[in-house]
Amino acid sequence: MNNDSISGYKKLENTKGITTDWLFEELKKVTLSFGTPTMGEMLKKPAVTWKIGNYTVYVQADESKIQMGGVVTESIGKNLFKQVGIGLLTGNFAGSKDNAESDRAVEELYKVVVQLVGGQPVENITSNVSTGIEKSFYMEQKVFSITAKYNIYLEDKTPVYFIQSDLTHLNYTICREDTEIFKLKKKLIALLPEFSIFEDGSEIGHLKKKLKLTKPEIVGEIKGKNVCLKGDVFGNNYEIEFDGKVVATVDTAVLTWGDCYRIKVREDSLQDYVMIFAVIIDNVIDAENS
What we know:
Layout: E1 9-13, H1 20-27, E2 38-42, E3 45-52, E4 55-61, E5 65-72, H2 80-90, H3 94-117, E6 135-141, E7 149-154, E8 159-165, E9 171-176, E10 179-186, E11 194-199, E12 202-209, E13 217-222, E14 225-231, E15 238-242, E16 245-252, E17 260-265, H4 271-289
Antiparallel strand pairs: 1-5, 2-3, 3-4, 4-5, 6-7, 6-17, 7-8, 8-9, 9-10, 10-11, 11-12, 12-13, 13-14, 14-15, 15-16, 16-17
């Protein structure tokens, strides 16, 4: 099975006699964005595990291979109606978000295990994901509006950002607490969606969607730093890479009326930029669905 063929599963050939116990001891020394490991069990065999909502992310080794993945290990059946009700009211549905988090954790874990198996010293291991403290936001688009309007708020519903387009849906104004901070302009005629970002009247960034059939990418730069917005195989959930490091994620929330996204930011200094990227992602998704 190819490592890119499905989401949430990776494997390596075990040519060096790696054991699950060895992986556990080494992974305890590595800083991962999704926490520290415990020794558990998967398919009745020892495994290094992490809990992510209803999912368990694991890695285990046998004589021929090292495999890792994320599986549902907590039944949500008895709480399904409760979760659906909360999802309808808030736009949050734990199952879909846990799945996105699990898939990302497997990707991060795979990159680390490859380095460990390759003989990289533990002190030099990097997962390429920021381990800063996460802050969650939710972005809702107002329905039945002539212009595109977005409200972005914290988990406790405190409003933080407001974003609105003009009638053409080509020009956007991004405000933080009633103060304009950026302008976003979409190119009128382009083979693929293309955007320019302005601050105080000066262009500070430019992004463009790449031509890809799966796992969409939107790439460019802002203030001289490379930016890449990477979608999953379905193009619904995105990682935001800033200068080569994953600093935020944008996930589609289901069971809600209108567009709603969960935005998780790991770098406070990049928070404002992430909100622009979320609008770009929404714009690209809408274009693909129309």
